[in-house]
């Protein structure tokens, strides 16, 4: 394991997230202990100093500020994909982390925009500083697992992490696809951004608002399956969007199969 990998793991733990799945670790109170948080921060600071010493960035790149407009657009893209934003996720988005695999977000024009200029460890402190110095950014990007947990109390639900199951027949799957297609599309040209147009090449309903009808169809489907690949095919949305809305429906007691 190199310093970059170690930094990424410790950084996720400092934010109260699993470094491997990105899930909030709400059931692990040890991560809320002040001494543990401080110890993780000290370790991150030490790794950051060492990594900067061994990975010098060009002066013009290292000194270049992050434009607030770019950061706001990136945060909005993360939110629209159904992902709770944080400084860590924003950094990973801008360097093109593989952690977003399976989401339409990877088609956004800003995804991996800074991959050639920065590593995760060199960009994260700049993102943190930019958020700290901009109240509007700080409001849009809390950057703490406590705030994220408060906003999304259903993030701990592991329905989609359970062994994959599906009792839908082929006919039922085709019927579901037909119902989703019949809902239609609200966001259409010419009001679509370029990144939405690109995303819809892969997922026809990417960044489309979730209507009550579509949520009802998803709730019914989750009674019979937790197969995200199948659900993306039926609903024509990315996995992260379906996972986020699905967990919310389960939390609200709208899915009969969920405990």
Strand content: under 5%
Overall pLDDT confidence? 79
Instruction: Kindly state the number of beta strands.
Output: 0
Q: What is the radius of gyration computed over CA atoms, rounded to a whole number of angstroms?
A: 20 Å
Condensed summary:
By secondary structure, the protein is mostly helical.
What does this structure look like?
The protein has 259 residues and is mainly α. The chain has two domains: 3-151, no CATH class; 159-251, no CATH class. The chain has 13 helices and no strands. It has helices at 3-14, 34-54, 59-63, 68-80, 87-95, 120-133, 135-140, 145-151, 170-183, 194-202, 212-221, 228-235, 239-251. Helix 1 runs antiparallel to helix 2 (34-54) and helix 5 (87-95) crosses helix 6. The longest helix has 21 residues, at 34-54. The chain is globular and about 55 Å long. Mean pLDDT is 79; it is low at 49-64 and 143-150.
């Amino acid at each position: 394991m190199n310093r970059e990998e170690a930094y990424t793991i410790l950084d996720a733990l400092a934010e109260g997230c699993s470094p491997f799945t990105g899930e909030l670790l709400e059931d692990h109170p040890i991560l809320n202990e002040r001494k543990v948080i401080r110890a993780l921060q000290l370790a991150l600071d030490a790794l950051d100093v060492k990594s900067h010493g061994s990975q010098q960035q060009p002066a013009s790149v290292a000194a270049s500020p992050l434009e607030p407009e770019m950061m706001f657009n990136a945060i909005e893209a993360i939110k629209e994909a159904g992902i709770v934003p944080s400084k860590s996720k924003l950094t990973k988005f801008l360097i093109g982390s593989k952690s977003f695999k399976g989401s339409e977000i990877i088609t956004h024009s800003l995804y991996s925009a800074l991959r050639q200029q920065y590593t995760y460890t060199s960009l994260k402190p700049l993102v943190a500083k930019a958020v700290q110095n901009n109240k509007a950014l700080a409001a849009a990007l809390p950057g703490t697992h406590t705030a994220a947990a408060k906003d999304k109390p259903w993030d701990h639900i592991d329905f989609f992490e359970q062994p994959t199951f599906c009792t839908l027949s082929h006919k039922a799957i085709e019927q579901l696809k037909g119902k989703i297609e019949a809902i239609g599309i609200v966001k259409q040209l010419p009001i679509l951004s370029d990144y939405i147009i690109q995303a819809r090449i892969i997922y026809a309903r990417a960044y489309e608002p979730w209507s009550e009808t579509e949520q009802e169809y998803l709730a019914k489907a989750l009674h019979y399956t937790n197969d995200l690949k199948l659900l993306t095919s039926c609903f024509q949305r990315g996995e992260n969007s379906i996972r986020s809305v699905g967990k919310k429906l389960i939390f609200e007691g709208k899915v009969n199969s969920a405990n």
